[in-house]
What does this fold into?
Amino acid sequence: MNRDAELDTWRSEWRSHVESASQPGEMPSADLRRKAMRQQRNLRARHVCELVFAVILLAFSAAVVWRRPVVETCIWAAVVWVGTLAATAFSLWNWRVLWRADLKSVSDFTRDYKRRCLARRRDARFGEWFLVVQLAISVPWLTLNYARHRLTGTAFAGSLLMLLVFSVGFVLLFARYRRIAARELAEISAAQAADGAAGDIANQ
It folds into this structure.
């Protein structure tokens, strides 16, 4: 009898804890909030750096055309502008979740955390395809210039080697983004499963 009373008391306390944690405006656990805020700060800083780099790239290509206004340079600048603007438009759309208000309910906080993880995964996928497109443009361009004797053999080989090094670096970077996103999504799923199990216990 005493044991049943203790069990009822425990259930009542657990149920009140679950209900209070689900109230609007209530913050999630300190651990989840710390991870989510660190993720948000890092992604915001990276997004700002991407936008600054895009502006620098556009300005640099415009300066090159202004100093050497020939057809080949104009075509190169046009390719740079189209690619940069396309990547920037995707980045602005993909990372729009980064600039939402920080104060949220538990469900909103968790949902935005998950959305940022999915955005990181989309960003890696887009980056991989964008790298393929850039290589499909750069390699034929360099080969054509070499065939027209506008590049020496040393310059041609050096350019291809540089492309290879940068490509491998970006592939490794995108793979790291995918791993981080997968780990964070797994943590969210585990936390949601634990909350569901706790809710089932509380309702028994």
